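Continued from yesterday's entry.
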Amino acid sequence: MKKMYWLLLFVTLPAYSADFAKSIQPFFARNCYSCHNARLKTGGLNLEAYINAASIAQEPETFEKI
C-alpha cells in the first residue's frame, strides 16, 4: 500500500507543482507568511520552507494539521 501511495504521488506531482506555484504559494504569501516564516516560526511552523509540492509531500502530517 505504501508503495502505491508513492507511485501515485510521483505521477501526480507535476500537476501539484503547477497548482502550488499558482494557488498554494500565493495563498500562503497573503495569509500565512507574516507569522509562519523563517524568522518567527509561530507555532514552530515555517511555511516559507515549503517551496514546491515535493517539499510538502515530504511532511504530509504537517499539512494534515493545517
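--- second protein ---
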Amino acid sequence: MRLKIIYIGILIAIISTLPAEFDIGGYYKNFFMLYDMPEYMSFQNQFSGTMTNTFRFEFTYSPEDFTSFNLAYNISASVIEPSLAGEGLGFGTPTQNKYRFNDIAPKIYSLDKDSAGILQVAQNLDRAYFRVSAKFLDAYIGRQVVAWGSGRMVNPSNVISPFSYDELDKEEYIGVDAVRVRIPVGALSEIDMGYIAGERFRMNNNAFFINTRLYLLQTDVT
C-alpha cells in the first residue's frame, strides 16, 4: 500500500512539471455525533458519541482543453465508543462502494481500547478518471461519480452510489469504476449511458445503465 502511495506521488510530481494546467486542492472537516440511547438498549451511559476528522486531497491535470485527469484521495481518523461499534453505529462516513473491480485496503490502522474507545484510520481512493470531450460526446473512464438527482436524504433515482440513512458525511458521492458516455441531443437534453465494473469484472457483479434527460414543454423529463 505504501508503494502505491509513493507511485501516485511520483506521478503527480512528474505531471506537475509538464506544460499544462493543473490544480491541487482539498479540504479538512471535523464532525461530532452524540447519541441519546433508548432505555431498551443496555448501554452503560445514556449518551454516547463519536468524532471524525477527514482530509480530502484533489488533483486535476489538463494537458489540453478537451481532456483531463482527475484524482481524489480521502483519509479519515475516527474515534468511537466500543458499545456503538457493536451495534453497527458510529463513524457516519460513506462506506466503500461495491462497484469497484479492485481497491486499496480501506483500513490503515485500528486500535481497540475498551475504556477509551476505538480509533480507526481509513482511506479511500475516491476519484481516478480520465475525461475526453468532443462536440458530440463527453467520455469518462476510471473511478468517478455516477449519480442522478439532487436529493441527499431520499433519492430514488440514485441506485449506484446511494447514501444510507445513518451517514452524516454526504458531501461527496462514493466513486465507482466505470466507462461513461454522455451525448447531447439538444440544448438541455442528453443521453447518459455506460458500464460499471464490479469486483474482479465478474459479470454478475457488473452493471450497465442508460439514462435520458429530455427538455419538453419547458419541463425536464428523465
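The chain has a mean pLDDT of 80. Residues 182 and 192 are 4 Å apart (CA to CA). Will compare against the first tomorrow.
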